[in-house]
Amino acid sequence: MFCPCGTKLNVIDVETGALHSLQQDDEEDISSFVLSPNDEILVTGSRALLLKQWNWRENKCVRTWKAVHIAPVASMAFDSTSTLLATGGCDSTIKIWDMIKQYCTHNLKGSSGVVHLVEFHPDVSRLQLFSSSIDYKIRIWDLNSSKCVAMLDGHFSAVTSLAFADGNTLISSGRDKICMVWDLKTRESKRTVPVYESVEAAVLLPEKGDFSQLGVKKQGLHFVTAGSKGILKVWEVATAACVYTQPMPFALKEEASERSLTQCMLVPERNEIVTVSVEHNIVLYDAQTLQLRKQLAGYNDEVLDVKFLGPGDSHIVVATNSPQLKVFELATSHCQILYGHTDTILALDVFRKGLMFVSCAKDKSLRVWRMNKDGRVLCVAQGLGHAHGVGAVSCSRLKESFVVTSSQDCTIKIWNIPESLTSKAKAALISSPEALHAKVTERGHDKDINSVAVSPNDKLIATGSQDRLAKLWACSDCSLLGVFAGHKRGIWCVQFSPVDQVLATSSADGTLKLWALRDFSCLKTFEGHDASVLKIIFVSRGMQLLSSGSDGLVKLWTIKTNECVKTLDGHEDKIWGLHSNKQDDMIVTASSDSCILLWKDVTEIEEEEAQAKQEEQIMKEQELSNLLHEKRYLKALGLAISLDRPHTVLMVVKAILKETDGRKHLEENIARLRKDQKEAVLTFLVTWNTNTRNCHEAQAVIETLLKHEAPDSLLQYSGIKSAVESLLPYTERHFQRLSRLLQASMFIDFMWQNMRLADASQQEDLTL
Questions:
Q1: CA separation, residue 87 to residues 46, 114, 138 (Å)
Q2: Ranges for the U3 small nucleolar RNA-associated protein 13 C-terminal domain (predicted)?
Q3: Which regions of 146-198 does DSSP assign to beta strands (E)?
């Protein structure tokens, strides 16, 4: 499946939800694209007036050519043989391209305004092209004569799709809320079907197949429409009647909304109908029953909260800037959209077992949801009572017994969960959401309450507010136990430690604080964020804290040392959602940048890899020691080079030179090294040559390389230029020093000879 996204074309695997992108080099937005009927050729048109042909399976552009249009290409279509391509432009012209011989065969002029729809007649022998532009007419072009031979006039708004029933019947849909059936022999309208909604696509049902569940009772043409109401309808051409309307869990709207459908197509190979909504949700239905098979969620808008869900944390539930919840299956990216709230959902929390969760919203309500064995999520209870939007919610930790909510009305409410909702057998019998009633209501703060948390033993409640205070409450009667004062700005989040009698708070002042529950004193303050700290959670069995902020960063803090040990930079905006799974080895973050990221704890893996690497290093060092002891210098050289040990390589070279005929052995061993090993040795000897103690070994290796390697071969070595530049000055200095030593040696020898002669002459004089 292909989805244009700015300068990229996203390719989605509908089985796994995996995505990879085809990136435009010209950095221009994609204006249109088309895939050939044989699924081999993908062509994109950009606003740079270029057409690109892709090998989409290998993510490679194989051909680029000018579109010849003087304005961007608005529509494209292949013929049934995948050899001809038609492009409709914003310049009112249509071009036909031969994809094999790679040239433009036709330039069709005469359309009015943007040509937003082009389709070839499925019968190749007719050589006909159908098009529509902003004059709402359907033009028929004869490609033999390059002329418009007919105009089908009947729509009063933009024509959105064309479907060929057989060689002589055409069905057209439009935003004028009608579909028209045309006889291509007489080129007249046979029937007008009023569909009472703006239609974006009409898809013919195949003649073969059992469509009885869609109201198809007899033979004849039937088609499916998708449009502004966001549902699929099946129509019978003969009677112009709607024989089936898809049931939906939301109220239908007459005008276009976020649920409106923008595209619809039939995939015969999979026996599926695929739709795309205004919210960019891609939905796959069974073509014979219109039952949902899979749903892929598109644009999330601002993500306000996210939680792991399911007995094995197999799903995540996401609250976006909308009244709908999205539940994603992590393995397949399949998405359920949950309807119920009537305004933006602000917060989520999940019970310990992971099968039930609670949502709260601006519509002043909370809802309790339950996941069935098959993964379907249903609303089982609803609570009303707050005077303003409900901004925070927390579930009981030991049992699924109660829920605590806080609101912009500055109150805290405790809601009991009836046993009928927690029992699997009884919950399965619930047909409509039960009504919840608050057992306790308490005014908690003077300003909005941003966060609420329940302690691990279900006995305490903590709240954090814009009034800069956090408060501790008894869960039984909501009586105030104490106040935590110290933050300089409003508190965004409160969390109980899972192991200690400690409360963590985060604030708009950019700090995190740990408080003692016994005396309400501040134990520690963590500073590091440059903006408000929006969420905090305890991880690593309560030994560490994770925080997320308005700066788009997630920070990991070690409580014992009071320091930030890791910063995760993956988001570009405020991170509102932060949650860890039950195994404490994965976290999920959600941000205002519309992204949801999964992070895996790889600490143990890295430690194991480091330990394995260390053990391997020790084994190699022992092996190296054995090789040197056994005087197997060639293997010792190779192993020392692989360990990247310049000093060890030097020791091996010195050991070789100490042997009888050391120079000869050195030449033999160096000559047998691979090219990459010689390059490493060349790099090492540059360092050796800077020290007078090691310059003799360096010069010996240089001499060997110069003797056994041709100049052209040496020039191919990586880093040869910098190596020569480093070697020359030190080599000259060594030779100058040797020259001085030689002169001094000759002078001393001369003086010694003179002294011996003088002694001999003196001895002769004494004898005489």
A1: 12, 11, 16
A2: 621-755
A3: 147-152, 159-166, 169-174, 178-183, 188-194
Counting other chains too, the contacts that 620-628 makes at CB distance below 8 Å and 24 or more residues apart are: 624/648, 628/652, 628/655
- The tokens describing 735, both together, are 């030779």
Helix axes 695-708, 662-671, angle to 10 degrees: 60
**Mean pLDDT of all residues belonging to the chain:** 86
* Look-up of token digits 């070839």: 120
Among 534, 531, 448, 464, CA closest to 503: 464
Q: Which two tokens stand for residue 683?
A: 């790099």
The rounded distance, in Å, linking the Cα atoms of 7 and 12 is: 16
| C-alpha span between 138 and 320 (Å, rounded) | 41
Q: Which two structure tokens, joined as six digits, stand for 652? A: 């091996």
Angstrom distance (rounded) from CA 204 to CA 494: 56
Among residues 38, 39, 66, 63, the alpha carbon closest in space to that of 53 is found at: 63
Query: Do the Cβ atoms of 22 and 9 come closer than 8 Å?
Result: yes
Structure letter (DSSP) for residue 558: E
Strand 511-516: give its sheet, edge to edge.
491-496, 502-507, 511-516, 522-527
pLDDT band at 26 (very low <50, low <70, confident <90, very high): low
Identify residue 112 by its one-letter amino acid code. S
Report the C-alpha gap between 525 and 511 in whole angstroms.
7
Distance of CA 184 to the CA centre of its chain: 48
Q: How confident is the model at residue 1 (pLDDT cuts 50, 70, 90)?
A: very low
Six token digits for residue 541: 């069995």
What letter would DSSP give residue 206?
P
Tokens of 450: 């941003």
CB-CB neighbours of 373 under 10 Å: 9
Report which of 174, 171, 206 is spatially closest to residue 191, judged by C-alpha positions. 171
Is residue 193 a contact partner of residue 240, using CB atoms and an 8 Å limit? yes
The pLDDT assigned to 7 comes to 55
Please state at what angle helix 695-708 crosses helix 720-767, rounded to 10 degrees: 120
Angstrom distance (rounded) from CA 507 to CA 511: 6
Cα separation, 569 vs 547, whole angstroms: 12
Helix runs in 584-719, H state only:
603-629, 633-642, 646-658, 662-671, 675-688, 695-708, 711-715
End-to-end CA distance of the chain, in Å? Answer: 120
From CA 121, how far away is CA 170, in angstroms rounded? 10
Phi, psi for residue 740 in degrees, rounded to 5: -65, -40
- Which tokens go with 670? 């160096």
Q: How many residues does the chain have?
A: 768
Please compute, for residue 4, the number of CA atoms within 13 A of its CA located in the half-sphere on the CB side.
Answer: 16
Look up residue 474 and give its two tokens.
């008894």
What are 462's two structure tokens?
Answer: 């903590």
DSSP string, 65-81: EE---SS-EEEEEE-TT
Q: Is 760 helix (H, G, I), strand (E, B) or coil?
A: helix
> Angle 633-642/603-629 helices, nearest 10 degrees?
160
Q: Which of 299, 301, 300, 275 is nearest to 287 (CA)?
A: 275
Segment 430-449, tens digit of pLDDT: 668 889 999 999 998 999 99
- CA-wise closest residue to 652 among 668, 667, 634: 634
Distance CA 666, CA 700 (A): 8
What is the rounded distance in angstroms from the CA atom of residue 311 to the CA atom of residue 433? Answer: 23
Quickly count: other Cβ atoms within 10 Å of residue 236's Cβ: 19
Q: Partners of 513 in the beta sheet?
A: 505, 525
Please report which helix (H) or strand (E) contains residue 438, including its range: strand 438-443
For 683-703, the pLDDT digits (tens) are 887 777 777 777 777 777 777
User: Counting beta carbons within 10 angstroms of the beta carbon of residue 103, is it exposed (0 to 12), middle (13 to 18) or buried (19 or more)?
Assistant: exposed
What per-residue confidence (pLDDT) applies to 738? 63
Is the per-residue pLDDT at 603 higher than 70?
yes
Q: Which tokens in the block code for residue 42?
A: 């993908």
